[in-house]
Design goal:
The protein has 342 residues and is of the alpha+beta class. Helix content is 61%, strand content 13%.
Length: 342
């Protein structure tokens, strides 16, 4: 549910409530200006109570699953809020009747409790409305995430059948068969593992980090077959490897780095590191590029990075940081993900 639609729902509800309890007339009988103002004050005060629970109490307690705190503080607020409401009404009466000397005239415990029900009603409706809105937004986000995950899985399936990647890898393996049959066999096993991972593991929402690391290592090893010096690609891994992570989340970053890297400059040409500590995963990848043959925009563009940003926003909303920078012909991408909430 969009923010614009939520605002329109709020406006409609309050207009409906206002006109069904119109304070300017009383069944066709004219009333005093002071009474009109009192009715408006009471209406606005109940709006205040509504939004106190809608904007503060529910996010502060219910959304954080602090049910006991919500019940206790809600009870206290509902019991004391009528007092402040009546103070506003008595202030309005004192202004119009000039009765400041007898400000609390008529106020009693019975009068105080008569304001309990409307305040409680506003509090209940504010809380209920916020919970309903949150539920709709969660359902919409889940539906969008499922749709995005389906799209990503389809993209991954297309990627695994990419003739460019497959043909280059198979050609390299074919060349190895003539010179190093053991290396050719290992390369075939890695290619098989990649295909298996992309076919089965990517259908899950979460995999263990060690599985993702193995997938990255297989890709790197197959790319190393295409360069003269395998040491131009450096991959370092540290930390706890059983942390859950969305499958193939780093694949677009790998693809971009290998696509735009020049192996005729800085050594190593590609440096990749992955650290996992206390549920915080930091993945960084840097690659050297040739400014004479490539532009900065080339390395930042592409549907891969666009899809990655969308997937991060849906899967790790508010729990990730994606930094992309360029300095001295080196592109650096750093992705930090907090997996503790998932």
């Amino acid at each position: 549910m969009s923010r614009k639609r939520i605002i329109l729902i709020h406006i409609f509800i309050w207009l409906f409530a206002f006109f069904t309890n119109l304070p300017f007339s009383n069944f066709g009988k004219s009333i005093s200006t002071g009474q009109v103002v009192s009715n408006i004050i009471a209406f606005l005060y109940l709006m205040l109570v509504f939004y106190l629970f809608y904007l503060l109490m529910v996010p502060l307690f219910l959304e954080k699953k602090r049910l006991a705190g919500f019940c206790i503080y809600s009870l206290i607020l509902v019991l004391i809020m009528p007092f402040f409401g009546y103070n506003l009404l008595y202030l309005n009466r004192a202004i119009f009747d000039n009765t400041f000397n007898d400000f609390y005239r008529g106020y009693s415990f019975k009068v105080h409790m008569s304001g309990y029900f409307p305040v409680m009603t506003a509090a209940v409706f504010g809380s209920f409305f916020k919970v309903i809105i949150n539920w709709f937004m969660t359902m919409n986000q889940k539906a969008e995430l499922d749709k995005q995950n389906l799209s990503i899985q389809l993209d991954l399936l297309k990627g695994k059948m990419n003739p460019h990647f497959l043909f280059n890898t198979l050609n390299n393996i074919d060349s190895l068969i003539q010179t190093d049959q053991k290396a050719a066999s290992e390369a075939l096993i890695r290619l098989s593992d990649i295909m298996r991972y992309m076919t089965y593991e990517t259908s899950s929402n979460i995999v263990e980090l060690k599985q993702e690391v193995a997938y990255i290592k297989d890709i790197i090893e197959l790319y190393r077959l295409r360069i003269r010096n395998p040491n131009e690609i450096l991959f370092e891994v540290n930390g706890y490897m059983k942390t859950g992570i969305a499958p193939a989340i780093f694949a677009p970053l790998l693809e971009n780095a290998f696509k735009f890297t020049s192996f005729r400059g800085e050594k190593p040409a590609i440096k990749i590191s992955l650290n996992s500590t206390c549920g915080i995963i930091i993945f960084s990848i840097s690659n050297y590029f040739d400014k004479e043959s490539q532009t900065q925009d080339n390395n930042y563009s592409g549907t891969g990075l666009i899809g990655l940003r969308k997937r991060l926003e849906l899967t790790y909303h508010g729990k990730y940081i994606l930094d992309i920078s360029e300095e001295n012909s080196i592109f650096l991408v750093k992705l930090t993900i907090d997996t503790n909430a998932y």
